[in-house]
Amino acid sequence: MGIQERKEREKERRRQQIIVAAKRVFSEKGFNKATMEDIAHEAELSPGTLYLYFKNKEELYASLSLRILQYLLISLEHVNTEKDLKPEERLQALMDAMFDVYDFDPLIIINMFHLQSSETLKNLSPDFLSKIKELSQKSLAAIASIFEEGIKKEIFIDKHPTALADIFWALFSGVVLWEASKKFINEDKDYLKQTLEAAFEIFARGLKRPI
Amino acid sequence: MGIQERKEREKERRRQQIIVAAKRVFSEKGFNKATMEDIAHEAELSPGTLYLYFKNKEELYASLSLRILQYLLISLEHVNTEKDLKPEERLQALMDAMFDVYDFDPLIIINMFHLQSSETLKNLSPDFLSKIKELSQKSLAAIASIFEEGIKKEIFIDKHPTALADIFWALFSGVVLWEASKKFINEDKDYLKQTLEAAFEIFARGLKRPI
Amino acid sequence: MGIQERKEREKERRRQQIIVAAKRVFSEKGFNKATMEDIAHEAELSPGTLYLYFKNKEELYASLSLRILQYLLISLEHVNTEKDLKPEERLQALMDAMFDVYDFDPLIIINMFHLQSSETLKNLSPDFLSKIKELSQKSLAAIASIFEEGIKKEIFIDKHPTALADIFWALFSGVVLWEASKKFINEDKDYLKQTLEAAFEIFARGLKRPI
Amino acid sequence: MGIQERKEREKERRRQQIIVAAKRVFSEKGFNKATMEDIAHEAELSPGTLYLYFKNKEELYASLSLRILQYLLISLEHVNTEKDLKPEERLQALMDAMFDVYDFDPLIIINMFHLQSSETLKNLSPDFLSKIKELSQKSLAAIASIFEEGIKKEIFIDKHPTALADIFWALFSGVVLWEASKKFINEDKDYLKQTLEAAFEIFARGLKRPI
DNA sequence: GATGAATGAGTATTCATTCAT
DNA sequence: TATGAATGAATACTCATTCAT
């Protein structure tokens, strides 16, 4: 392992160290109330150091989303590349993947909505922004692709795969957000999994071409 | 009309004047960038006056949500009180009502999510908060009630009406938010209505008990 | 006196209050080391209030220059409008005026050089900037005008009045700056007046057309 | 050449390398906007290395002035040591020397004024400071010495040579600064040489004892 | 000597909120 | 009631300088 490579690795470790701290602080306080000093403190670094690794507060926050988008895309591609699945089975695999992604980071949807606010987008560097867009589009495309065979074989209803992907994603994110909201308002227990399961069940049935 | 009552009416008019101005400013700039001075200016009042009618910036913003929640509840109750509708017809009426509510104020969902962030809730007065919760719960209950007959008659699947209400609401808000997001990222045209229609179609079919 | 006018007057008083405080603090610490908080403290106001009257730190500093430029221009115009002065007498009046301006504010030249740095100019509002330029140009023109008659009557050498004005101003500002510098380096006594007098004497003689 | 000496030479080369880079960066960005990292980058060194050769940013900047002061002093001494010059001729040689020094580094005066600000002086090491003072005083003395013979021979007016040196230096620096300023404000062309020539002409005539 | 990653003190500016009038 | 001038807490970000390697 050359010196160059070791440095690169060290640098990546620092980034992760900061991201982990940022996630903790942002989760607890939300974007606005969390200060860079809080995060630096949590990461046991000085504020200045954060800026060696992230352009600004927005980009640090957005990095959390980037990470999850990467995880999401990999999961989705896995669903697509699995062989010999019937359309219904592949749909089931998609749903399982979404549960998995949610488990990996339950803040996924909240992060992503913050990310998409126009104010935030303005403060990101172009490079960063295009990475986000690319991952975002690929993920959607991956979801769409899952529906394709089913549509072609006339098992699923005759909609454009992209439209189905939008609806599927909207349903997923809607349930996640809504269940998070209910917690704030009703201080209920966490029904996320159950609701999501029921939602997916309805979606799956609604997706099938009526006989 | 007594003096007391006239004063009350005058006061209410001021509140509305401020709310209208606030809506314009918040829509244009978003919560963070909008300043109380902006709103005061738009309402042709002084900043101090705003605080005679609203406890603080958060509560002013939340008032926008309150207003729409009231509209929503009335619409939903209307769907419920209409007589002689078959479950499928009532479901259709619900969907139409949601389109209508969205037209009344397209920012509905965005407002509501801001409202539900824990940061915001902390700054609201208890009175206000309970009004919100009440309306919120009543609305959900109204939606749930729409499904009841269909479930009883075994036309709709056998889920708890509240669960179906959650899913329906999540689907609606998910689509609204997601389509808004896509505009930021892809600068696409506005496909909201189409996506919503397709989503509702799938939902309606998925809701029906399989034969 | 109407309410409007009284408010206007009150506002102007505040501006002056701030300017006086700013002058004290900037004189003592220089532009960079002086903080807005220092100035606010000196003015017995809060930092925020400074920004109600001045756009930013640069513009507050520049206001000091504006004030002196106004004084300078009035003095110079006075020299020009005085009647029945022979060119030599008018030149003498100019020199006296410069002594007077220096007494009014010995930091005049130092302020003005800070003002003219390009970094500073960028931070000024266009309105402010054009006021500065206008006063600056008028002052130069006023000096030039003082030389005109003498040139026409062939008492002074045959140079363009503007060129003479430049040289005169350069000599004045050069002496002021240099004597200020010497104080820092040599901690000498203040020879400004003597040096300026001698410099003016040489200039006056050099200005006369050789026989 | 011993090892010691070779090291010494190597060290001096590094200093020059840094000074050259510093000059480029400071010229382009000014003192405040120029960062030590900029300079390090320009010198193809690391920031830390700069501090092995210069105590701090101020002293690095001041080194530029030191360099030009050395050049100035040599030029002035050359004027003094030239033999068989009549006072008027020696005065002319002085003026030529000043043109030459300006050509060597047009930022000379701006640097020197920065140098003389009290803020800067506080940050210099005593050694460095006394070098500056020494060169500065010697240069003034050299200028004064140029006038001496002319005064003694009653060709120049009867002022103390040091006073004449001050005035001469003030005139030179005043013109340089003023012409630089005019460029910022009026975006005029560069009239420096012309103005300086005219200024020197007036000075030379004013210096001569009236008959 | 040279490096360059890490430091952390330092500050202009904003804006929700107040309160004397 | 209404005003709007004044407040002052709060914070992202910079960059000269250091020091372990």
Briefly say what this structure is.
Chain A is mainly α and 211 residues long. The first copy, chain A, has two domains: 1-54, Arc Repressor Mutant, subunit A; 58-207, Tetracycline Repressor, domain 2.
Describe the secondary structure blueprint for this structure:
The structure is a homotetramer of 211-residue chains.
Chain A: H1 3-33, H2 36-42, H3 47-53, H4 57-81, H5 87-104, H6 108-115, H7 118-122, H8 126-152, H9 161-186, H10 192-207
Helix pairs in contact in A: 1-2, 1-4, 2-3, 4-5, 4-6, 4-8, 5-8, 8-9, 9-10
The structure holds a DNA duplex (21 and 21 nucleotides).
Question: How is this structure best described in words?
Answer:
Four copies of one chain form a homotetramer. Chain A is globular and about 65 Å long. The longest helix of chain A has 31 residues, at 3-33. Helix content of chain A is 81%, strand content 0%. Chain A has helices spanning 3-33, 36-42, 47-53, 57-81, 87-104, 108-115, 118-122, 126-152, 161-186, 192-207. By secondary structure, the first copy, chain A, is mostly helical. Chain A folds into two domains: 1-54, Homeodomain-like (Arc Repressor Mutant, subunit A), CATH 1.10.10; 58-207, Tetracycline Repressor, domain 2, CATH 1.10.357.10. The mean pLDDT of chain A is 92. The N and C termini of chain A lie far apart (62 Å). Chains in contact: A-B, C-D. The interface between A and B is large, with 49 and 49 residues. Chain A binds a DNA duplex (21 and 21 nucleotides) through helix 2 and helix 3.
Q: Taking all residues together, what is the mean pLDDT of chain A? A: 92
Tally of distinct domains of chain A: 2
Number of helices of chain A: 10
Per DSSP E runs of 2 or more residues, the count of β-strands of chain A stands at 0
